[in-house]
Amino acid sequence: MQGDIVSGLLLPLILAFIMYALGLGLTHLDFRRILQQPRALVVGVLSQFVLLPLLCVGLIQLFGLTGTFAVGFMILAACPTGTTSNLLTYMARGDVALALSFTAVASVLTIVTLPLVVVWAMNHYTGAAATVQVPVGAMMGQVFVVVGLPVLLGMLTRHLKPALALRFEPVATKLATVLFILVVAAAVAKNWALLVENFSTLAVFAVALNLAAMVGGFVMAWLTRLSRRQAVTVAIETGVQNATLALLIASSVLGNDALGVPGAVYGVLMYLGGLVFAVTMRRVLAAPAVAGG
């Protein structure tokens, strides 16, 4: 009963609050910037929704993962960028405006793309019979309720009460970070035996996926002639995922907490990789990036 309350009520509420905090930092201008720099946004979308899942499939094949863990990492790879990606972009002196625009767009696109990836992963890694059990419509609805709607409400708050939103946003962001840590800690505690037994494989895979995502995003942006600041942004947006949403899909929608273990592991390690990447980009590329735009 306690587990049902956590997965069925507390986890969706926590994720909704995290996304609401994100919405407080967004305005309609962030969407207008899409028209001003469409190439950068398209590259970011392709990197997030095409490159990242393909990298995950390739690494799953390389590592020989199957079943639960393979599906769990694919769920993670299908989630939108994490809320702290904007902070890491700022630390790395990337294009924060692009990061905000991309985060907003990714949160909307995920409502459609995530269920499709989950259905494919369940079918491919666990057998066709599992596909029937994936409630695609319910998943789309739940992702909208806990991801899309809170972002819209946060933006509405910012529009109607800008002074209040600006004061509350830093507090909400810090609280959202604490709540995320609690969610990951709860997932780890609930699946401790499974995690300990497979931690070496999961941790190595998570680090490999995180690094591959950031390097792949950076290279993709560089090949398409984006500025260095934009390339740094695309890299971070590709590598930092919404692990809380991955846990929600695993426990609340699919009813299998074990599917959330990969997301919990990645949710911790991606911040270490993201921080190292941000600091490296800040130190190595800061001066040229400012000079070159």
TrEMBL record:
Gene3D superfamilies: 1.20.1530.20. The chain crosses the membrane at residues 6-29, 41-63, 69-89, 96-122, 134-154, 175-193, 199-224, 231-253, 259-279. InterPro entries: BilAc:Na_symport/Acr3 (IPR002657), Bilac:Na_transpt (IPR004710), Na+/solute_symporter_sf (IPR038770). Keywords: Membrane, Transmembrane, Transmembrane helix. It is found in: Membrane. Its main location: membrane. It is a multi-pass membrane protein. PANTHER family: P3 PROTEIN, SODIUM-BILE ACID COTRANSPORTER. This is Bile acid:sodium symporter family protein. The lineage of its organism: Bacteria, Pseudomonadati, Pseudomonadota, Betaproteobacteria, Burkholderiales.
